[in-house]
Amino acid sequence: MRSILEILAQGGQVSGEEISRELGISRAAVWKKIEALREAGWQIESAGKLGYRLEPGDRLEPVLWESKLETSRLGRGEIAYHDTVDSTNTQLKIMAAKGAPDGSVCLCECQNGGKGRLGRSWNSPAGQGIWVSLLLRPQLRPEHAPLLTLCTAMAMNRAIRETTGADSRIKWPNDIICGGKKLCGILLEISADMDHIDYVVIGTGLNVYPGAYPEELKHQATSLQEVGKVQSRAEILIHYLRALEEYAALLEQKGFAGIADAYRAQSCTLGSRVNVIGSINMTGTAEDIDETGALLVRDDSGELHRVLAGDVSVRGVMGYV
Ligand code: BTN
Predict the structure, then answer these.
(1) Rounded Cα gap, residues 33 and 49, in angstroms
(2) What is the pLDDT of residues 66-102, one digit of tens each?
(3) What pLDDT is recorded for position 277?
(4) With a 6 A CB cut-off, is 131 part of the ligand 1 pocket?
(5) I want to staple 114 with a disulfide (CB 3.0 to 4.6 A). Which of 3, 124, 165, 215 is the partner?
């Protein structure tokens, strides 16, 4: 049986009569439940006989988006929603170790131990972004797992463009940028042996409001509200899950060839001059990606280098992008 919140989350006005019929309780009991939800912070308007209407605001509780998902895989496993948590990636790895199925999701309002790439931390203040991790148990060879990073970047970039109109692009390997500044970062964590992937945890941190990043990062970070029109975080999440399901299936069915052109089309790195900083250091032109997702950079002496995502930072010669 649906809960009263599930009924209201469908949207529109629902009469007390309809709710009492569906739940098999009296009108007075409905009213009591509505009051309890209001006390718990939900905004519920009442208009006499017309009934009740939920004002969802920009909340991310699963009850607000689960029934609107257009996926058959992502969001169809276990779903964990936390107010505050150390890291959604860490929590989802714990869930995975206990057997959570493919398609499980962990998300939160606030992380107090958010993890970034290359051992960095990730700012994740309450309500300011989408801090979410997805669990896949993909049908892929372990050496192809990094390609899921590219799928994730494509999916998030598409979701951003579809829902906010922002002119975002992908900075190799997997940052989403807009106006030369970072909007979203992606962190994949993998559990695999030589010939089998047990699971992949795909964590994304999307800055939705300017409070998502600290003042000192304002020259290289931005948020959706600054570059596009934000309706709700739940809407972006729904589009992201649908797009990632599609790209992951293409990768599983066709390998690199299934996603390569779509990645190239969304990239702002390919064709650009880049500085590679890390285990190798050089300046050159980013020419392409190969079938492992590595970046192919031609240095100024004409030599072609294969650059792996785990080893380096890539910066445009004119700045962050
Ligand atoms: C980066 O450094 O660009 C990657 C940042 C990834 C942050 C996300 S937020 C949700 C998930 N949980 C984490 O601890 N990290 C990722």
Answers:
(1) 17
(2) 999 999 999 999 999 999 999 999 999 999 999 999 9
(3) 85
(4) yes
(5) 124
How far apart, in whole angstroms, are the C-alpha atoms of residue 199 and residue 187? Answer: 14
Q: Please check the confidence at residue 321 and state whether its pLDDT lies above 90.
A: no
**Which of 84, 189, 204, 206, when mutated, tests ligand 1's pocket best, judged by the most ligand atoms within 8 Å of its CB?**
204
Two tokens, residue 34? 């509505």
**pLDDT tens, position by position, 268-287:** 999 999 988 887 888 999 99
DSSP of 163-230, one letter per residue? HH----EEETTTEEEETTEEEEEEEEEEEEETTEEEEEEEEEEEE-SGGGS-GGGTTTB--HHHHS--
> Residue 315's pLDDT is what?
72
Question: Is any atom of ligand 1 closer than 6 Å to the C-beta of 186?
Answer: yes
Residue 37: which pLDDT band, with cuts at 50, 70 and 90? very high
> For ligand 1, is residue 133 a contact (CB within 6 Å)?
yes
CA of 42 from ligand 1 middle (Å) equals: 29
Token output for 228: 């596009």
Quick one: CA torsion of 172, 176, 179, 181, rounded to 10 degrees? -80
pTM tops 0.85, yes or no: yes
In the reported structure, the alpha carbon of residue 115 is separated from the centroid of ligand 1 by a whole-number distance in angstroms of 5
The owner of tokens 């699963």 is: 62
234: its two tokens: 């739940």
